[in-house]
């Protein structure tokens, strides 16, 4: 069988992506192909070179989002870049839990701690119209967050707070007034071996926490305890082996009805979707 030039480069790229050990080589190839050939299959040398460069980067395990400049999350396209965390579909499970279990409205207030480029907070806002405050201590993350808020035309309801969640005094003005706190903090214990996309090619401050990974989980519980009104709800995403310490942190701060959730609709070859929920007294 004679392959045309376009098909030849596609099948070569697919082989390279598969040999690089990627979990979804076909999906990655499709996304990179769309980036370069959406307007047509003409193989001019410049376009082909740019396509080949992206394939080589992906084979070197640069995160797909960093190559594309965007990540899709819950039907929304978010800008991401090399200095930011690329949102994972696993976090959509918390958004779905909120949609199914809480009746948030435009009068509700949500805090998204460790918001990164805003994936979770913006998805909750889009689903509920709740006023949402996205908190991150990193200026690169906040630059992307601001751009994503503007592009989604969410600036009236979604705001950005530059704050370190280990310093809960930054949240004093909202004390006791918040309906939901959600957090996907860096929770991986230092030294844990991860796929290179996360272990080598993400900023370490977006992935790893100090003190066996629990430091920012505990900080999330402390902030939530201060922010939430009576009956308000906290959701914290964490690793599969951390359920006990998350529950302990929530218990220490008076949370009730603490339970762990695992959502296999959002788990994939890169990890399980696991989070813990608690209700403020
Ligand atoms: C795992 S990423 C999650 C980002 C986003 N929630 C998501 O799911 O796409 C963790 C984020 O926490 C931020 N972060 C790390 N330490 C922090 C701290 N002490 N206070 C506030 N944000 C922090 C990082 O800058 C990063 O954007």
Automatic annotation (TrEMBL):
Residue spans crossing the bilayer: none
Signal peptide segment: none
Keyword annotations from UniProtKB, A to Z: Methyltransferase, Transferase
GO MF terms held by the record: methyltransferase activity; nucleic acid binding
Pfam families xrefs: Cons_hypoth95 (PF03602)
A GO BP annotation: methylation
UniProt keyword Methyltransferase present: yes
Listed name of the protein: Methyltransferase
Species annotation: Pseudomonas bharatica CSV86
């Amino acid at each position: 069988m004679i392959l045309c030039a376009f098909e030849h480069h596609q099948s070569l790229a697919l082989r390279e992506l598969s040999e690089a050990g990627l979990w979804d080589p076909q999906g990655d190839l499709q996304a990179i192909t769309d980036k370069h050939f959406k307007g047509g299959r003409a193989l001019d040398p410049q376009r082909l070179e740019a396509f080949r460069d992206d394939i080589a980067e992906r084979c070197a395990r640069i995160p797909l989002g960093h190559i594309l400049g965007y990540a899709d999350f819950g039907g929304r396209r978010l800008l991401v870049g090399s200095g930011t965390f690329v949102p994972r579909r696993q976090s959509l499970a918390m958004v779905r839990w909120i949609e199914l279990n809480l009746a948030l409205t435009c009068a509700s207030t949500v805090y998204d701690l460790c918001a990164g480029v805003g994936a979770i907070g913006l998805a909750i806002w889009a689903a509920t119209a709740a006023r949402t405050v996205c908190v991150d201590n990193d200026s690169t993350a906040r630059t992307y967050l601001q751009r994503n808020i503007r592009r989604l035309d969410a600036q009236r309801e979604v705001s950005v707070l530059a704050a370190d969640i280990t310093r809960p005094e930054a949240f004093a003005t909202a004390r006791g007034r918040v309906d939901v706190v959600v957090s996907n903090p860096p929770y991986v214990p230092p030294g844990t071996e991860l796929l290179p996309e996360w272990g080598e090619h993400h900023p370490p401050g977006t992935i790893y926490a100090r003190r066996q990974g629990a430091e920012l989980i505990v900080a999330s519980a402390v902030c939530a305890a201060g922010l939430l009104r009576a009956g308000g709800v906290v959701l914290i995403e964490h690793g599969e082996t951390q359920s006990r310490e998350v529950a302990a942190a929530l218990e220490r701060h008076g949370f009730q009805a603490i339970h762990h959730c695992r959502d296999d609709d959002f788990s994939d070859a890169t990890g399980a979707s696991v989070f813990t929920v608690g209700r403020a007294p």
